[in-house]
Amino acid sequence: MIGIGFVLDILSNIFLIVGLFFVFLGMLGLIRLPDVYNRLHTTTKIGTLGAFGVMLSILLKVGFSAMGLKAITIGLFLLLTAPVAAHMIARAAHRHGVDLCDESIIDEYCDSYDK
After folding, report:
1. Is the distance from CB of 53 to CB of 24 less than 8 angstroms?
2. Domain span at residue 71?
3. Residue numbers in the chain where pLDDT is lower than 70
4. Is 58 domain-assigned?
5. Cα–Cα distance for residue pair 53/97, rounded to 1 Å
6. 16 within some domain
7. Quick check: 20 and 49 in contact, CB under 8 A?
8. Is 103 within a domain?
9. In the chain, helix, strand, coil percent, each to 5?
10. What pLDDT, on a 0 to 100 scale, did the predictor assign at position 113?
11. Nearest to 70, CA basis, from 45, 43, 61
């Protein structure tokens, strides 16, 4: 019969693989995408999801010990702060005149403030 520990190990390994896959996609997007705004988008969304998957994997592996609680706290902190930080970095870049890539079609914020 399969025990709960075996199931938790399988789930932990699945979350680890999925999290590492998303971290890899975020790294690939950071290298391949053309401008700062696209790079911020990929590293914030994909990287945060990947890091949260790894932290959830740690929680499932070690349980609600001190290390597991720290891992889930870090994961929740990343989920709450990464989008806000990326928004502020993108806004600062736009206000300082960092141009969009040539393939961008529309810039809705170009008239909202002086550069």
Report:
1. no
2. 4-95
3. 1, 108-115
4. yes
5. 35
6. yes
7. no
8. no
9. 75, 0, 25
10. 63
11. 61
What number of CA atoms fall less than 13 Å from residue 39's CA on the CB side? 12
pTM of the model: 0.81
Evaluate whether residue 14 is within a structural domain.
Answer: yes
**Residues 2, 16 contacting (CB under 8 angstroms):** no
Q: Are 68 and 59 in contact, with CB atoms under 8 Å apart?
A: yes
C-alpha torsion sign, points 31, 33, 38, 44? negative
Q: Is 46 exposed, middle or buried (0-12, 13-18, 19+ CB in 10 A)?
A: buried
Q: Are 51 and 73 in contact (CB under 8 A)?
A: no
Contacts (Cβ under 8 Å, ≥6 apart) of 9? 61
How many domains are contained in the chain?
1
